[in-house]
Amino acid sequence: MMRGLELVFFAILLVLATLQVANSHGEQPLSRIAVHNTRLQLFENADIKASPSILGLKGQNSEWVTLEYASPNPSNDDWIGVFSPADFSASTCNPDDGSKQAPPFLCTAPIKYQYANYSSPGYRKEGKGSLRLQLINQRSDFSFVLFSGGLTNPKVVAVSNKVAFTNPNAPVYPRLAQGKIWNEMTVTWTSGYGINEAEPFVEWGRKDGDHMRSPAGTLTFNRNSMCGAPARTVGWRDPGFIHTSFLKELWPNSVYTYKLGHKLFNGTYVWSQVYQFRASPYPGQSSVQRVVIFGDMGKDEADGSNEYNNYQRGSLNTTKQLIQDLKNIDIVFHIGDICYANGYLSQWDQFTAQVEPIASTVPYMIASGNHERDWPGTGSFYGNSDSGGECGVLAETMFYVPAENRAKFWYSTDYGMFRFCIADTEHDWREGTEQYKFIEHCLASADRQKQPWLIFLAHRVLGYSSATWYADEGSFEEPMGRESLQKLWQKYKVDIAMYGHVHNYERTCPIYQNICTSKEKFFYKGTLNGTIHVVAGGGGASLADFTPINTTWSYFKDHDYGFVKLTAFDHSNLLFEYKKSRDGKVYDSFKISRDYRDILACTVDSCPSMTLAS
């Protein structure tokens, strides 16, 4: 008996260890800095200067700054940190941390950093260097600090002059999202204006038509909303104010222009630039509809800072490809692991700035992943610390989704001939739970005559994956992933189930209960008899390996960065494409061609059981 209990306990430990490996997608670069070890060691002949000192004179929200610096004792470990707000001393430390000790000299992480010799290979010998860094408007001023001692024992050698945008509080980085009904679009943005300073709104209307103003609601949160470190400590940065406006009664497929506005209480107005979007089609409308789906993109830095090139190498390439093809994209789904801030809040601003050209033009729908939600003792299904203490607050506030309760990040949304059911894998999805009931209702309520393309989206792989850690665990899925859900996918004839979390691309056969229901690989005609499962987690974060085990249900694998594009031509024809982020070319594809009667046709476990009596 004791031997049996020991084996069970060992098995549990093994699964937990496997899950931890699965969630270890790299180290947040800012976490390498031992912030609390910082000491002041100013050198008389050390200097650092930043220019220009005033940014955004032409209304830009992003601008490059040039740094010139010198040190009498240069080292290859010297680095430069960018701080915002510019005053970063002990006066900014959390006064409510309960500690009776004097605060450290530095208690907030920089928003980015780079080594002093990055673009100046002669710095070690000459003691002089220069560096160009890109800044975005983030509601405060900036200063630059030259450090010695490396990242583990930082010493402040010199501090620069302050740099600021002309209006740090300006409304920035709009992100569109579908509303709760088909003819509603939401606009969410960030600013430095609270409700006691200005009234936020969106001025909008049909292109070349009359315009109107719609008010916006305002949200924010404080340090106490964070669940742990670093979000509550060195990673904390004031998020400003997040505004959301609801643009209603849109005409299907019409082009609208809009701009963000704040009416200050002195009567003056602050405006953003003008943007535009195309309203969603009526549910069931027959027109060409194009959807992009990926997970785990994260963010990267165009200036090479933060060593993100070793953390999320493909992020900028994915972003670039989507921007280049934006005229051929109608809606985007980023299914979890959004920016990997992991408790360093400044990175959310960086991410929204990176995707602004996309998110300001087409709906940018997100799902919750482990790096947004998971934290011990907070109700997440997994008790790890992947969110860095954010425990869902940032994702739930920075982006709008049409969920009944954004703390329960599951929702459905219709786009023309598509019905999307988005699950939240960081909460329990198993049979009998609140989320399971939602998933069944979402699938069951789809009118397949009008919306023939039924798509299930989730972050963690609830279906099939050949990732090494899933293979080692023995399930080729998230433990307990498909056991409850596969009967729903089969009963309601889900066409494609798509996931992130695993940082690669993989496509299965149409499958049910581990058995391929079709040997066809590229052109499906008639009834699928199963669901095609796709891992599309190669949006940008460091890649994950495949097991050497031959998984017969896996039709295509790619250890590279990329994204999926679905094109519905009409109610009978769907094109699936996998494109690589490095060149935007198609590397895998298939077509589905069928009629409504093929959806109605019974297959294994998809119709009510029949008896002689019935």
TrEMBL record:
Tell me which residues make up the Purple acid phosphatase Fn3-like domain: 48-167
Which GO cellular component terms are attached? Answer: extracellular region
Record domain Purple acid phosphatase C-terminal: where: 530-589
Q: What is its main location?
A: secreted
State whether keyword Zinc applies: yes
Question: Which regions form coiled coils?
Answer: none
Q: Does the keyword Secreted apply?
A: yes
**Sequence ranges assigned to domain Purple acid phosphatase N-terminal in this UniProt record:** 175-278
Please give the Gene Ontology molecular function terms for this protein.
Answer: acid phosphatase activity; metal ion binding
Q: Which residues form the Calcineurin-like phosphoesterase domain?
A: 290-505
Top EC class, one word: hydrolase
| Cofactors required | Fe cation; Zn(2+)
Superkingdom assignment:
Eukaryota
Family annotation (SUPFAM superfamilies): Metallo-dependent phosphatases, Purple acid phosphatase, N-terminal domain
| Location within or outside the cell | Secreted
User: EC no.?
Assistant: 3.1.3.2
UniProt cross-references to InterPro entries, sorted A to Z? Calcineurin-like_PHP, Fn3_PAP, Metallo-depent_PP-like, MPP_PAP, PAPs_C, PAPs_N, Purple_acid_Pase-like_N
Q: Which UniProt keywords apply?
A: Glycoprotein, Hydrolase, Secreted, Signal, Zinc
Spell out the reaction equation it catalyses.
Answer: a phosphate monoester + H2O = an alcohol + phosphate
Q: Where is the signal peptide?
A: 1-24
UniProt similarity note? Belongs to the metallophosphoesterase superfamily. Purple acid phosphatase family.
Q: How does it assemble?
A: Homodimer.
Please identify the protein, giving its name as recorded: Purple acid phosphatase
Organism expressing this protein natively: Populus alba x Populus x berolinensis
